[in-house]
């Protein structure tokens, strides 16, 4: 959950708050890289529970990159190599949505919330 919240802050904040959010997110990914070590997966040689819990976060990376300018591939290449290993597993690649769709979903949700907010303000 900490990964998701920190990642979300990278595009929900602006200016110096956004820079701090990016540093926090990269710091969390760094901790994950340290935990991964030289193993192919967090559990060792085989895909495990931690991998399955963390890899869906990848779907949002494109959104983070577009909206905050943070290149996760550049900042944490070892973490991205792990993501690519996970995506080689058919059980993972066939169940995750296209990461570019997450940006579209974010845009659609933002527009809907904005309309609801404006409607609420006008109603009262």
Could you explain the architecture of this structure?
The longest helix has 25 residues. This protein has 124 residues and is mainly alpha-helical. It starts with a helix and ends with a helix. Helix 1 runs antiparallel to helix 2, helix 1 runs parallel beside helix 4 and helix 4 packs across helix 8. The chain is 73% helix and 0% strand. It is globular, with a radius of gyration of 17 Å.
Layout of helices and strands:
Elements: H1 2-12, H2 15-36, H3 49-54, H4 61-68, H5 72-75, H6 77-87, H7 90-93, H8 99-123
Helix pairs in contact: 1-2, 1-4, 4-8
In short:
The chain is an all-alpha fold and about 120 residues long. It has 8 helices and no strands.
Measured as a percent range, the helix fraction is over 70%
Q: In one word, what is the shape?
A: globular
Order of helices and strands: HHHHHHHH
Which regions contain 5 or more consecutive residues with pLDDT less than 50? 117-124
